[in-house]
Amino acid sequence: MALHQRKLVFIFGLLGNIISFMVFLAPMPTFYYIYKKKSAEGFPSYPYVVALFSCTLGIYSALVKNNVTLLLITINSYGIMIEIIYLAIFLFYAPKKLRLATIKLLLLLNVFGFGAMLLSTLYLSHGDTRYQIIGWIFLVVNIGVFGDPLLIIRKVIKTKSAEQIPFTSSMSLTADAVMSLCYGLFRKDYFIALPNALGFLIGIVQMVLYLMYRNAKPVVLEDPVEIQELSADHVV
38, 75, 150, 200: which has the fewest Cβ within 10 Å? Predict the structure, then answer.
């Protein structure tokens, strides 16, 4: 890698880490609300479980790659710490049924899932092949993270209301996707670049929808359950 390219990788990686640091703090209002309400009922736990898995996988992926990058290890270590704190608060205030479902998901994905992936890649693959397998898993997981923003886009189009889009958070996520996309491209690591290209497109769509519907009169949904879901998403 040329010196100029290494500088660009470092610059975009550092900027991406700074923005990611703020993005990880974005759910804090949600957990403050849960703390005040003394209940996590009505809130999903899967985004934080998947984010924890993604951060763990990100560290393993960085360690497996030949040129280990401190930037990836640093931000993912911070992400693991934050997600553990979020999940601890969530489990403390969640009703029994939701708590058990969250624990099952944590065990399935972060213990058995990660453990099976770790053992299989350590003993059944070597060198570049190992990184390719991990990279594909990392790619699929990070694309899966965008499931929640896609649901928000669907709800905004259905209700003709931008109330469900936190514009500042969407802008931060889009900026983070741009930095990570450039970082992945300059490192020629398309397992990082591809999911962030999707994240950039989703972020742009969210901001466009926000500008389209920010002053529009929302459509009243007939399904009370869906109305409750929208209210919970608005708090997030």
Answer: 38
Quote the CA–CA distance of 180 and 175 in Å, as a whole number: 9
Q: What is the pTM of this model?
A: 0.77
Q: Does residue 161 contact residue 213 with C-beta atoms inside 8 Å? A: yes
The C-alpha angle 91, 96, 99, rounded to 5 degrees, equals: 35
Instruction: Tell me how crowded residue 146 is: count the other CB atoms within 10 A of its CB.
Output: 18
Q: Which of 53, 59, 45 is nearest to 113 (CA)?
A: 53
Distance (Å, rounded) from C-alpha 199 to C-alpha 176? Answer: 9
Per-residue pLDDT tens over the stretch 216-228: 666 655 544 444 4
Which residues have CB under 8 Å from 30's CB, separation 6+? 43, 235, 236
What are the CA-CA distances from residue 142 to residues 1, 34, 39, 224, 232 (Å)? 26, 26, 28, 32, 23
